[in-house]
User: Fold this.
Amino acid sequence: MTEHAALIAPAAAEFTGILCGIGESGLSARTPCAEYDVRALLNHLLYWGPWLEAAGRKTAPPEMSVGEAEAGLADGEWLSAIEKQTARLVDVFGTSGAWQGMTALGAAEMPSSIVGDMVLGEFVFHGWDLAKATGRTLDVAPEAAEAVLASATAMGEQARTMKVYGEEVAVAEEATPFERALGVTGRNPGWTR
Assistant:
């Protein structure tokens, strides 16, 4: 899946564009992820981003003294922090080397390409979540839509078992690849705030 490396930078650019439009008042908006408002989703991204980066660099994961819910990472200079984190993820996963061989995400060993697809999915799916929550539109390239559909389908059952994805949402027969990918992850493509 090293060809997916080329999808990372454009997806990150779209994602960052959505982030830049979130004002202080938007932080309490609900998102399509039922357990997260915008602030909690940003906290989630800031919490797990260093783990993904470490997996891409094939280095030890960060040591966390608190869990995600207690981390409080989406306060203060959250936009600068997430922009820098996104740039580091692009730096790592925008090259084919990060997609090759095996790596560890925490204690779990897995193919590096799976972690790369997770990063792409973070930008695309959570970018969509944040866009929907704030009344904006995320532009997903056709190649990125096909890539996240393939990876979401491949990981679907395991991700649902681990409560990473919700129950699959049925989509219309004429749904686009991205709408089908949203459905696989448990998101309703027609979600409104």
